[in-house]
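QA checklist item 7 of 12: single-chain prediction sanity check.
[x] sequence parsed
[x] length recorded as 485
[x] structure emitted
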Amino acid sequence: MELTKLLSGVEVERIIHNPHKQIDRICADSRKCTPGSLFIAVKGADSDGHDYIEAAIKNGAGTIVCSHAEKTEAECTYVIVKDDRKALAQIAGNFYDHPSRKLNLVGVTGTNGKTSIATLLYRLFTKSGYNCGLISTIANFVGDKRYETINTTPGPIELNALIAQMAREGCEYCFMEVSSHALDQGRTDGLRFKGGIFTNLTHDHLDYHKTFAAYLQCKKRFFDTLPPEAFALTNLDDRNGRVMVQNTPAHIYTYSGREQADFKCKIIEKTIEGMLLNINGTEVWCRFIGVYNAANLTAVYGTAMLLGASQEETVRLMSELTSVAGRLEYFKGKNEVIAAVDYAHTPDALENVLKTLKDLEPQGDLICVFGCGGNRDKTKRPEMGAIAGKYASRIIVTSDNPRFEDPLEIINDIKAGMDLKTRARSLFIPDRTEAIRTAILTAQPGSFILVAGKGHEDYQIINGIKHHLNDKEIIIDTFAMQEKE
């Protein structure tokens, strides 16, 4: 593509040298540059792309887009832009011919529930016979092809390339998680959404956003920028549900388990195997448990209706849907002991899952095994310790992904939120494998064990190195060992 076309819509301050160059590739990572590449230097949270302009040129980049240039080289074209992040998103959209306009793109944002709702919508519409794409924390899918993911929401270049692949391969729908980091960094700028879904907003990512108000405004910008023809589906059971859509130009719809809403849900019956729900007057049995899952399923139902799906077919397929990987997946062991794995890593998520399991009235203990991630929001650690003490009869505090922090210091931060009675019924075991095995091997008959925090992850990050660790594997292996005894 010629450079002048690639810069359509970009706020350009000046171009140095040749504005008619042909661009074969666009990169925001200097290591990926090859001859004929355009390199976009973006100032990020941890590093500044302007520091890597020379490296990009050495790797073959012939065009540099940046907000400032310390020096220029004759063989390179330099495009000085007003806002490098906005330029990156606009250039990515131009290069891939705005692929989000070629399918129905639905974004899901909020603190908890994004992965479940996006994944269940992908499965529901796939089961309905549509070719669909999914962009999520667990994995990205183009039709039935799975691709590993690094971030919940990829960068603008990777994101547009992925959606372009979906459009080429005939996907009619794409369901994607939209993280607050992505919104703040402009990764979704320029995408055209058919609809947006708000799940909830609770304590998370304050290490990045600094204040809850800033976190809220970041999420709200997603709805503020939806097109007028789109829909905005919001959760009235969250106190920020109305705030999210108060300035959106999109058509507003609501869902709730408590208030009058466009899509209303009531739990009629619940067991460890699932729930009987009444959604807008129709009963449906779903293989999920918990009030928060009822909310997620209501959002799925509402979105399907807003996208024109058959109500009868949607209800039928909802009864076939199963839990998303690492989202309250449970396994049955010896003596009626049940161990569940969940990604809950925020205070609200941990409370929701523990409350759900406690409401099912286990015959034995409710045991909670959890930790908190290192080099992340420290303020939630004591809060999660207090929540575990409120619901669990036994607690084992362990490591999550300690990253570059001392696991014992993280455990001490969690312990600070526990009163003396809670500490007395708690164990503190930094080794996560040992902690999970201890919970299972010491569980009384009929106990429920929640292993929280990592969910689908199959690794643990210690001092910057990923080590294989899978909560589900540890549970299954320990249960199998017990059966042999």
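[x] summary fact logged: The chain has a mean pLDDT of 95.
[ ] second reviewer sign-off
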